[in-house]
Amino acid sequence: MPLLEIRNLTVSFDTATGPFKAVDGIDAHVDEGEVLAIVGESGSGKSVSMLATMGLLPSTATVSADVMRFDGRDLLTMPARERRKLIGRDITMIFQEPMASLNPSFTIGFQIEEVLRQHLRLGRKAARDRAVELLSSVGIPNPAERLKSYPHQLSGGQNQRVMIAMAIALNPRLLIADEPTTALDVTIQKQILDLLMKLQEQHRMGLILITHDMGVVAETADRVMVQYKGRKMEEADVLTLFENPKSSYTRALLSALPENATGDRLPTVGDFIPEGGVA
What we know:
6-stranded mixed β-sheet, Rossmann fold, 5-stranded antiparallel β-sheet
């Protein structure tokens, strides 16, 4: 049984000009200990799909699905209070921009300890000791001192490590990482990805990695799902997808990699899309 199973997920938003369908009939699943990469360009519905699963979309969104189960439990019919307990404990998410996710008015220590006290009912000292352990586990130097820092006092890479520490604080079974290396330089990107993969292996978490970077997919994923304009184009294990892509859109993504350049210019998606649409 998959750890997470989604069938026929559709998400629409109310707009001034009428409903806008951001996700159109997506099927997805991830097993315990597996890394699933969801890849596609900006606007393809990758993040919206996972935010819908987390129940974090605004009231302007309409979400429907035939199946949305976590560990056999129906997320669609689960009482709101029970779902809130599940989200943040068994399923956690790392968002694109750590500076937008962390509260600038509170210290790093307060924000990590709040997660621990809310879900585990830890006392003040126990929560602080656990927060120090977590910062140490994600490679933050002088973790006890860093608990006193505010987000603006840390670098982008350090803030992303803090977000990872908060995400793994309760030993989740599924971690969703939404473009976790956005706005970080190349060296820090590799450090963050290496850290995520190390933690995923240590804790045997299911990991869903949302990205538009096919190089990251090749290095990290067991299985890949390709999305385009809210639809799933194809899904395969990572080796099969890179060696024998079925969709013209996937072929376009792979051909746009710098190492696959054959002329003076990189190809664009439009070079591969037939007149009738994506195939």
